[in-house]
């Protein structure tokens, strides 16, 4: 199966595809151009830019990548060395920061845990997760953060707050989680409400959002044979809705309901979901 990935540079998605023969990631040239120039029509910009620089034809190859319409098209891609050539040719003020960003891929804690989240699917371990339970959520958290946090998979024993909002007190967390676990899962609305309550509980010291979004998808998949295409939910709109959810969960419900897909066995949907889930957590 084709391995694809999405990374975000200054909120611009940069798609990549893995080539087994070359044993290398190849990056979408159009996306690189858009990230550097913020062009409103990156495809036209790239085509015109490529015509002006003959050397680009020698470093580009074409591989299939999914576009915003969900279909796959043969697309100009370049490997890491080719990206450096493109960056050197495009007159952009943010070239240095882009190069630093590219060279840092794979080295940060978030990138390492993201790779482990990919592996959760690739290894088949995702089929061994308990669905809808606290233990299942701990299994997810423990897998993707194991070896990175000493508290991976462990329920917190300290009180935490974020943005002025205090999550469930540690003293009552076990009781709170037990009640959440028993919440019904027969409709999308019920499942989203259970997800919201788990987010309010925030059972781990770090990594709650990334874990609970996988947890939510597994509940939807088991009970309704659907999951969320997270690429259809804007980052800022999502967080605005989640901030309101402790009082009114209707907005996050509408967002999730509007992004539901029946492609529950799609590797691409899962991987794209991981990419966007981690993007949500970027400052």
If you had to describe this structure to a student in words, what would you say it looks like?
With 283 residues, the protein is α+β, with helices and mostly antiparallel strands. The protein folds into two domains: 3-105, Mlu1-box Binding Protein, DNA-binding Domain; 110-280, Fic-like fold (Orthogonal Bundle). 51% of the residues lie in helices and 14% in strands. It contains 13 helices and nine strands. The protein has helices at residues 29-37, 42-52, 55-59, 80-89, 95-104, 109-122, 134-145, 173-181, 188-201, 208-224, 235-244, 250-258, 267-280; strands at 3-9, 12-19, 24-28, 61-66, 72-78, 161-162, 165-166, 227-228, 260-261. A hairpin with a 5-residue loop joins β4 and β5. α6 crosses α7 and α8 packs antiparallel against α9. The radius of gyration is 20 Å and the shape is elongated. The mean pLDDT is 91.
CATH superfamily assignment of the largest domain?
Fido-like domain
What is the CATH first-level class name of the largest domain? Mainly Alpha
Major β-sheet profile: 5 strands, antiparallel
> How are strands sequenced across the largest beta sheet?
1-2-3-5-4
The H-and-E topology, N to C, reads as: EEEHHHEEHHHHEEHHHEHHEH
Give the domain tally.
Answer: 2
CATH architecture of the largest domain: Orthogonal Bundle
Global geometry: elongated
């Amino acid at each position: 199966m084709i391995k694809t990935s999405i990374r975000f540079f200054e909120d611009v998605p940069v798609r990549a595809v893995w080539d087994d023969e070359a044993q290398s990631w190849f990056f979408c040239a159009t996306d690189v151009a858009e990230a550097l120039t913020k062009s409103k029509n990156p495809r036209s910009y790239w085509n015109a830019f490529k015509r002006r620089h003959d050397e680009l034809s020698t470093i580009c190859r074409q591989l299939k990548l999914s576009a915003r319409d969900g279909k796959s098209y043969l697309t100009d891609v370049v490997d890491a060395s080719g990206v450096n050539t493109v960056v050197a040719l495009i007159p952009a003020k943010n070239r240095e920061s882009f190069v630093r960003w590219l060279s840092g891929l794979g080295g940060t804690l978030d990138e390492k845990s993201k790779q482990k989240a990919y592996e959760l699917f690739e290894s088949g371990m995702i089929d061994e997760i308990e669905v809808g339970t606290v233990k299942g959520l701990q299994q997810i958290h423990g897998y993707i953060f194991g070896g990175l946090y000493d508290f991976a998979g462990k329920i917190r024993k300290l009180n935490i707050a974020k943005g002025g909002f205090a999550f469930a007190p540690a003293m009552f967390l076990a009781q709170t989680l037990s009640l959440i676990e028993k919440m019904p899962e027969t409709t999308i609305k019920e499942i989203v409400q259970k997800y919201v309550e788990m987010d309010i509980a925030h059972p781990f010291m770090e990594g709650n959002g990334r874990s609970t979004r996988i947890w939510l998808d597994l509940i939807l998949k088991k009970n309704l044979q659907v999951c969320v295409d997270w690429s259809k939910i804007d980052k800022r709109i999502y967080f605005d809705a989640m901030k309101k959810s402790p009082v009114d969960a209707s907005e996050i419900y509408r967002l999730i309901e509007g992004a539901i897909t029946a492609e529950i066995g799609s590797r691409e949907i899962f991987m794209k979901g991981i990419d966007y889930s981690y993007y949500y957590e970027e400052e």
